[in-house]
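The data are quoted verbatim here:
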Amino acid sequence: MVAPRIVISGLGFVTSIGNDRASVSASLRELRSGIGSYDFFPGTDLPVKVAGTIKGFDTSALQWAGWTWPDGYGIKQEILRGMAPHGLYALCAVEQLIADGRLTTDELASDETGLFCGSAGSPRLMRSYLNQIHDSQGLRVPPMGIVSAIAGTLNFNLAAHLGVRGAVAGFSSACASTTQALGYAFDEIRLGRLRRVLVVGGEDLNTDAIFPFQGMRALSRNPDPARASRPFDRDRDGFVGTGGSVALLLEDAEAARARGATIYADMLGWGQSADGQSIAGSDPEGRGLVRAMRRALAASSVAPAEINYVNAHATSTPAGDASEAQALRAVFTEVGAHPQVSSTKALTGHGLSLSGVMETGFCAVSIAEGFIPGAANLENPDPACIGLNLPRTTLPVAPRTVLKNSSGFGGCNVCVVLRRCDK
């Protein structure tokens, strides 16, 4: 049996840098930031003052009935009863994907179609529901509290709404969640168990979802939205949080071609590893990420010198970026390979479990449209980055082969390899 060729054949975006593919592409080309001022606790003067804001949506109301979203989506309010705010973002992203990938209702409900999701759930909704239970001494238990607030909320709701029958799964590996979902989706298609998988990531954008990271001193205290997120820069001081949703269709190339879908890129393979040493911090020498990158390259039959662009995980934290820089130097620089490297989190902020599928989507757009996003906000590269190519501006060059890195709590490292579609 010949293994199928696996491609990205549909995309949908609700992000801080745009709510559709065209606006996302323009933002990446122009290095246009989606980060803005954000008041986590109105009336206070806290040191964290910025976030990657989602435009055109208002999910500030605690109840779904008060949420608003841009015109043009076919969302019925009753669908939102069991959803968190990021569920609304995901519905919009998936609706874009279905149109972009030319998927029919029958194909969505096919036994050959799966849905793999990643999100951290909704801390804000969970807090509200638990408060109701405790304040009423157990007399008031919201019936949709569990399915709208826990970490599986995206897979529960989207699978039921879309009528998915092939397979449904949720991934909870912190900031590596949706990259891991992509990897396992790739394997399911390669093994012939499924023909296509919708991979969807989503995160709330609110105080409860982002501000707890301040307890770890992980959030940037820079109040300037244009300079707060600065991966690989010597003066970085933490990440900027964001939310939203991205949906990506991974599919057997024959099925995509038969439907006339746009093929953005081939996915060649993936690799993963674990650091095995810290709850939250990366291995200072990047050894776990080195193993994941090498495994991804080997699984894809790609040599380091063939990689033209690396979309780094780099979140703008001092320790995390330095660890990844060391890993990149070990895999590439030390063997004479010099791919371009940037982290698009400089523009978007860090989407946590959403970040992997979001940035893989960015890579697919870059491959298909012929450019490499620059390393935005990079003024003084960290000495740990010596030997790395960190372009300050977007390059009008079509990358042929791309590596996407992700890392999460517990030392989870996941990498995927993409290639331009030549035919």
